[in-house]
Amino acid sequence: MDRFNAMRVFTRIVELGGFAKAADSLQLPRASVTILIKQLEAHLGVQLLQRTTRQISLTLDGAAYYPRCVRLLADLEETEAVFSAARNNPKGLLRVDMPSGIGRLIVIPALPQFTRRYPLIELDIGLNDRPVDLIREGVDCVLRGGAALDESLVARPLVMLDQITCASAEYLARHGTPHNLADLEGHQMVEYFSGTTGKRFGLEFMVDDQLRLIDLPKHVSVNSADGYLAACEAGYGLIQTPYYHVARQLKEGRLCEVLNATLPPGMPLTALYPPHRQLSRRVRVFVDWLVELCAQPGNEFYRKDLSG
C-alpha cells in the first residue's frame, strides 16, 4: 500500500464528503478508493470513517488523523518542490473560485500570462458569488470582494476596488439625474441580497469620512452580481458596483455615473486559502501572479479610468 496515496484519498473523502466524489476528483476508479481506505484502516488498526447509506462521517480516530494527514501531505509537496524542478516549474491541478465578473472581465482575459509562465499547472476555475467551503469542496484558493469573514483562512489583499453609483441612461431620462444625496428623493434602487444569509444591501456613501446608509424604494431585488447589473440596465434604478464591472457600459453610454462627488466606500479584493495550502507552490505562484495582475496599469479597478 502506498501510504501517502492512501492519505491523499482519505483527506479528499473528508473534504468532498464521499467516496465517489473523491474518486472522480482524483481520477481513480471508485473500487480503488474503497480498497485504499480499507488497507489504510487495517494498517492503522482503527476505523477512520463511519459509513452509512446516506453519508460519510469521521470517527474520533479519523478526526484526529485528518489534520495530521493534511500537514504531512503539505510538507511532502513543499519538500518535493524544493528539491525538484517543480520549484521553478510547479505542476498539477489548481482549483480556484472567484466572482463571475472578476473572472470574465479581469482574470481569464489575462490568464495566458500565467499559463505561459507555468505551463504544467492545470486550472479548474469556478465562477460564482456564493460562499465556498474550501475544505469540503476541495478548492485551493478563492477570490472574494468585501470583508474576509472567515478568520480560519489565510488572506492575501490584492487591491481596493473603486465603486461607483450608476443608473441606465433610460432611467435617468425618466427620473432625472441626482447631483447630491438630497436629490435621491423620488428615486428608486435595485436591491442586492445575499442568497446565503438573506441580508439585504442598500446604498452606501462616504460623507465626511463617515459611512451613510440609504434605502430607496425598489421594484426588483436580486442575489447575483450579474443579475444586479442586468436589472440596472433594464431601468429599475440606481446600483452601486465596482467600476470594472460597468466600465464597458459606461464607455458605451448605456449606464451613467451619478453622485460622483459622494462616493461609495471602496471594496477590498482578497485571495483566500486554507492554512495548509500556504506551502503549496501552485497556490503561491497563482496568488503572486494575482498580485502582479492587480498592480498592472490598464486594469479597470479605479474610477479615475473614467477620465480616460
From TrEMBL:
PROSITE patterns: HTH_LYSR (PS50931). Keywords: DNA-binding, Transcription, Transcription regulation. Pfam families: HTH_1, LysR_substrate. Signal peptide: none annotated. One of its GO terms (molecular function) is DNA binding. Residues 1-59 form the HTH lysR-type domain. Belongs to the LysR transcriptional regulatory family. This is DNA-binding transcriptional regulator, LysR family. It comes from Pseudomonas mandelii.
